[in-house]
Design a protein that fits this description.
mainly alpha; Arc Repressor Mutant, subunit A; 2 domains; two-stranded antiparallel sheet; 62% helix; elongated; disordered N terminus
Amino acid sequence: MDTHDEGSTLRKGVHVDPQHKTRRQFSKQFKAETIALIRSSGQSLPQVCRDLDLAESVVRHWLAQAEIDEGRREGLTTVEREELTRLRRENRVLREEREILKKAATFFARETTR
């Protein structure tokens, strides 16, 4: 199912990976609409979660992250988390490349001494 639909994504913003049937992924728009619904509907968080078939712990995490992104709570913003993830991935690749170059240098050093 396309998670980038225009308009409301409540009930539609879910992507289920066929290989990992227990883990669902939700679009940013779906999360934002769910948070807005909780804040404006007057319904309790557990009720909204039951209505949308969502785990309360997941939605509480979305709410906490939204508060961080809005500057109302301490912590890493979504943008900062994404940058940290990207930098960690880049760091891992650079370390792997360095190890490959070390091994290549050792190999060629042995070849030239023979």
